[in-house]
């Protein structure tokens, strides 16, 4: 399973504000949601499931291959498909960035 | 935060110890259906919402002289328009106005659950809250102050542990007291930030001035909020009115303004505000007693979603599931068959002196044959299947399976949840078709149903194993299965590319593992079996009557002769095999039974057996499946699936005959 999806080039890991997509978070790492991208339905759904800007999330595990991600948000475990997770942007709460 | 607004008093005059309507609403996985089962016992009917393929469970109960109708609304996370379930629920609450709504919330995930509660409050629904799974919250080291929560929300809160039945009695008493106006609720009105609040009120004002008609059904504040969120369904309701356009344009302008201020899209802004209030209340009422420990459930979760072990466990679960189903099913099927064959013989002997010959055949083969077939072939496999399914559901394993399979499912344009109906498909296509409901959009449902009917169900397995497996060899039977999987993958991919629309990604809650409760498992099995019998039996009987009538009148021979160029010429099968293939529409395993009655199976060549099984596997979902498809997808889509499958089976059968006959020795 080494094929990359040609139509969707991988997003650069960070933008200049230090925001990365959920996909680039490490397992066990915590982060704060900054924004989500996508159509009206997806954005609304994600917000309704609790992924609103400023929300703390923790990446529990990444699924195999380009599989889904499991995160913890507002005390609930949520599975997000790979494509969905790539549209959620977060700022990691890393030790060096804590200041 | 909590400002007063007068609670709409339910029509008290008509409620003198009459019938009450209580609706259960809440998120998925909060134990709502357990409460429903506790309340109604076996007096429940599972059906569809009128015109919608959304499950509707209803039950009756008598309590303190009241006759109470309980309606179990689908488990949802929001009252927006994400799925049919959400629209059905909100219309029911707003339009049908049940006497009281019991909002079941999960004490261990208060924040997310309160988000839904707020939406019910905005719809101005009369509420009683069942604070459920308090035991589970305690396990996580949390205790919820129910009284304080009740003060915050301004509605009664009753702590419950649904699986043990604790608190259910009090819940009912509270609900009835609320209906009778004995409690003085003071429901919380959710206040937003200034910029939002101004705009909500502006739209609300315009609504009550220009469209007072709509405000009698839906609370104007709620409509205003939904318009600000750009809710398509509510916008559609406004378009029915002449002055709706004006209001819509106004709301659109305000929403755009709001988005400029906040830099977010408007539904996100409103959800954020609701969640920050939910979070605040949850913090206030939650008492952390002990820090959560790593529990057995968490470890189980880890292993079952593991990159490697997860798949081993999944394979083991699926394999043991089918071993169990076939072992139990075979035993039951054979025992019942023995019982009924003597019974039908007796009935035949009883009737033959009384009625003319053709009538006896019609009753015996048409009506009795259909009933016996359903009882001896479908139910013995379906009941154990449903039991295991309910076990998997109640423990919380299915979401894990969906999690593991998400990636593969995406290749055919579906997401992980579709793996659940596919798994069902190996048992029986009927529940699998119904199971496609868990997919969110019409497009996804159609795709999933298309794939699911191609999965070899238990009946097709009987044919494949009983013919090819037994006479050609197990390797050939396995090759057929493998071919089917590849075919499904290719077709799924084609359908996915051909169908317009965007695929939906996976957003799924992963509930914690729980110990299943046997009573619930059995009740679920019972409800589903009943549902299956209602759908399948009338059709099986009607179909078998039609075919017996055709065969008595001699029309069948005509059909077989007409089909012979196709059967003999194209598929290379003996002419007689046309009859079992036609009868196979009724039940797939019938093809093998009939075939063995018409010609000795050993007289068939290996190639013929393979072609016959291949055609049987693909050519048409049986009549009960077609019925389920019609019910779930509508006539046109069901017909499309049926015709595509027939064409495909004939095409592939012919090709297989031409490729295989030179290679395989006869």
Explain how this protein is built:
The complex is a heterodimer of chains A (99) and B (666). Chain A is α+β, with helices and mostly antiparallel strands and 99 residues long. Chain A has a six-stranded antiparallel β-sheet with strand order 1-6-2-3-4-5. Chain A is globular. In chain A, strand 4 (69-73) and strand 5 form a beta hairpin. Chain A has one domain (20-93): SH3 type barrels (Roll), CATH 2.30.30. The N and C termini of chain A lie far apart (40 Å). Chain A is built from two helices and six strands, in the order ββαβββαβ. Residues 1-6 and 8-12 of chain A have low confidence and may be disordered. By secondary structure, chain B is of the alpha/beta class. Chain B has three domains: 13-179, P-loop containing nucleotide triphosphate hydrolases (Rossmann fold, 3-Layer(aba) Sandwich), CATH 3.40.50; 194-262, Helix Hairpins; 294-666, no CATH class. Helix content of chain B is 65%, strand content 8%. Chain B has 28 helices and ten strands. In chain B, the strands form two sheets. Chain B has a seven-stranded mixed β-sheet, with helices on both faces. In chain B, strands 7-9 form a two-stranded antiparallel sheet. In chain B, helix 26 (606-618) runs antiparallel to helix 28 (635-663). The chains are: A alpha+beta (99), B alpha/beta (666).
Helix run count of chain A? 2
CATH topology (level 3) name of chain A: SH3 type barrels
Query: What is the total domain count of chain B?
Result: 3
* Average pLDDT number of chain B: 85
Determine the fraction of residues in helical runs of chain B and give it as a percent range: 55-70%
Question: How many strands of chain A?
Answer: 6
**CATH architectural name of chain A:** Roll
Largest interface, chains and sizes: A-B, 37 and 45 residues
Which labels suit this protein?
heterodimer; A: 99 residues; alpha+beta; SH3 type barrels; 2 helices; 13% helix; disordered N terminus; B: 666 residues; alpha/beta; Rossmann fold; Helix Hairpins; 3 domains; seven-stranded mixed β-sheet; two-stranded antiparallel ribbon; 28 helices; 8% strand
